[in-house]
Design brief:
Length: about 325
């Protein structure tokens, strides 16, 4: 192509350090039957996309495909999308992703305050607060936190309970039900115990399970199940969300990234599928700033790999 030939040779140095330049090249080419003027060349250059424009187009198409492929990935903000792309093997600068988000009007899920769902039983005996807002255990299965939320559906309210291992913020138990009775939180606890047993962890002594002062969590049935499993119960003060901030934060992510963006929801079956999809996304795909941008599963694996390596090194 003539334009490409001129672009390639216009800065070529000749005798006395002079360069060809656009006008001389156009004159030489015209003398040899290839008629092209300097103004025509500059017009073509202005129309041709730059390297940056081509890269932007490539990255925009990539981000569009990622967002279209998963409703949950579409909820990622620019920073988490940048980490998601890098984890997938795409070398891209964070500032570039931020700029493309602004240009295309994309934004991640916006967080807001959620209403409380648990109702404290003022007359029930409550375990003491063994956590005191310290949600940074040094290993898995030292601290679990629990809470539940509500999801409006066409057939009525659905409640979803979660159990989170505080070490890597991993959701290890969850359940959905059409009533917020003790059975809901018990089922989530049973799944958490099963999850760890399935991974070879059967001794839960020394583990603390922390929740708010909702009647479901201070019930005799829930407390007894904890004790039977060797787990120490812990309950925060009444009416203070900060005493169970980690569970509140996890539920906030679930509501913001999945429920509020992708409803309305038909019934409990639809909510169960949505919860399963989000838990898998949260544990295996979504980067967490607290975990140095690892996923919960990656953080747990890194911990166990390190623990295993210490005796081998010794």
């Amino acid at each position: 192509m003539v334009i490409a030939f001129i672009t390639e040779h216009k800065d070529h140095r000749v005798a006395d350090g002079l360069r060809w330049g656009v006008e001389p090249l156009c004159a030489v080419l015209s003398e040899h039957g290839v008629t092209v003027s300097a103004s025509t060349y500059y017009e073509w250059v202005r129309k041709a996309p730059t390297r940056r424009q081509l890269r932007d187009q490539e990255l925009t198409e990539l981000i569009v495909a990622e967002r279209a492929g998963s409703r949950l990935v579409a909820a990622l903000g620019s920073r988490k999308m940048w980490l998601h792309l890098r984890r997938a093997g795409h070398e891209v600068a964070r500032c570039t992703v931020e700029r493309l988000y602004r240009v295309n009007g994309w934004e991640g899920a916006r967080y807001g305050k959620r209403p409380r769902t648990t109702i404290p039983d003022q007359d029930a005996a409550r375990p003491r607060d063994r956590v005191e807002r310290d949600f940074a255990p040094v290993a898995p299965n030292r601290l679990w936190v629990a809470d539940f939320t509500y999801v409006p559906t066409w057939t009525g309210m659905v409640y979803v309970a979660f159990v989170v291992d505080a070490f890597a913020r991993r959701v290890i138990g969850w359940r959905a039900a059409t009533s917020m009775k003790t059975a809901l939180v018990l089922d989530a606890l049973e799944q958490a115990i099963f999850t760890r047993a399935n991974e070879g962890v059967t001794d839960l002594s020394g583990l603390v399970s922390h929740s708010d002062a909702g009647s479901q969590y201070v019930s005799i049935a829930f407390t007894q199940r904890l004790l039977d499993a060797g787990i120490d119960p812990s309950v925060g003060s009444v009416g203070d969300a900060y005493d169970n901030a980690l569970a509140e934060s996890t539920i906030g992510s679930f509501k913001t990234e999945q429920i509020n963006r992708n409803g309305p929801w038909r019934d409990i079956n639809a909510v169960e599928v949505a919860a399963f999809e989000w838990v898998d996304f949260f544990n295996t795909i979504r980067p967490h700033e607290y975990l140095q941008d690892l996923t919960p599963l990656e953080a747990e694996k890194l911990h166990y790999d390190h623990v295993t390596a210490l005796p081998e090194a010794g």
